Amino acid sequence: MAGDLHVVVGATGALGAAVVRHLQAAGMPVRAVVRDRERAGELLPADVELVTADATDRDGVVATCAGARVIYHCLNVPYQEWMAVMPQVTTNVLKAAQEHEAVLVFPGNVYGYGKFKRIPTPETHPLTATSRKGLLRNSLEQTLMNAHRGGQVRVVIPRLPDFFGPNVTNKLFGEMIFAAAVRHRKVKWLGRLDVLHDFVFIDDAAAACVLLGQVEAAWGESWHVPGAGAVTAKEFLSTVCRAAGAPVRISALPGWMLTVAGFFDDGARELAEISYLFTQPQALDGSKFRAAFPDFLFTPHQEAIARTVEWFRTRPHS
User: Fold this and answer.
1) Per-residue b/e over 145-160, b at no fewer than 16 CB within 10 Å?
2) N or C: which end of the chain has fewer CB within 10 A?
3) Rounded-to-integer distance, Cα 184 and Cα 205, Å
4) At 65, which CATH number?
């Protein structure tokens, strides 16, 4: 195996930045691969090794990953760019892992399952996605796992539910929930408030990704990393409001609004096809992960939410 270096591709994303922070705090050599050095300076520790590269450039990705023992594919793009960008980037990161004999950690989500047929949902759930994003995730994961089974590379897939925490500034968890609560405005949710939903703190997700990348027995499999326990959206949002010292004012946006908005906005159109994630229970069976790593502790939701609220308080115009 190569040296001890950990390379994070997509290090200015919420998960990538959290992985970098976790690695550095643990004293592990880490290289952050970024496209925007100015943004990296705002998100990452000042003394981390930064390398600028375009993830769509295969030779550039391979070069920036030289010496890696573990490569984390944390790059993400807006939904409307997935089809054009993600296959190319994933092929490039796979090539880098092969060239440098590194373990490839490919954090995933639940899109590939389609509508859950069992709650809590185990890793053996059939991959019955019908959405374009779910089908793409399944295709990318199959390519990587085929390469693993063929002995070309070592791959592990941490499968994550919705995550929240510092630097998670997407429209839902940033603008509609945490930023709104900090401003003492009404917080909003897409879909139903009364069904169970898994939420994982971004720092816990990062720690799990790093852990799975280092344990040989975990490679070649997908692993559910469910967080501190499924709760209803109403429970989660109420806790956010209380942590922000705001009145508990919550509204649920019906799924049909995404369909209407999709006529005007590409992002809304892409989200509409997975709107079932917010109208049906979404709870992952984490027993496999707990059995393999009994000492791993997820941050309780109340603590994680409080830390997230404090981070949002530091943001300009919050």
Assistant:
1) bebbeeeebbbbbbbb
2) N
3) 28
4) 3.40.50.720
CA-nearest of 58, 62, 16 to 39 is: 16
Phi-psi region of 93 (alpha: psi -120 to 50; beta: other; left: phi over 0): alpha
Q: Cα separation of 305 and 195, whole Å?
A: 19
Amino acid letter for position 308: T
Quick one: 148 and 236 in the same domain? no
Spatial distance between the Cα atoms of 31 and 48, rounded to a whole number of angstroms? 7
Domain assignment of residue 318, yes or no: no
pLDDT at residue 117 in the model: 95
Quote the pLDDT of residue 275.
86
Q: Please give the span between the terminal C-alpha atoms of the chain, in angstroms, as a whole number.
A: 46
- Which H or E run contains 259? helix 256-261
Amino acid letter, residue 159: R
User: What phi-psi label fits residue 78: left (phi over 0), alpha (psi between -120 and 50 degrees) or beta?
Assistant: beta
Q: Are 92 and 26 in contact (CB under 8 A)?
A: no
Q: Of the candidates 166, 186, 223, which has an alpha carbon nearest to the alpha carbon of residue 44?
A: 166
Contact 202, 14 (CB under 8 A): yes
Mean predicted confidence (pLDDT) in 190-205 = 96
Inter-residue contact 24 to 45 (CB < 8 Å): yes
Are both 48 and 125 inside the same structural domain? Answer: yes
Spatial distance between the Cα atoms of 86 and 111, rounded to a whole number of angstroms: 15
Range of the domain at 106: 5-162+199-224
Query: Which amino acid, one-letter code, is at 13?
Result: G
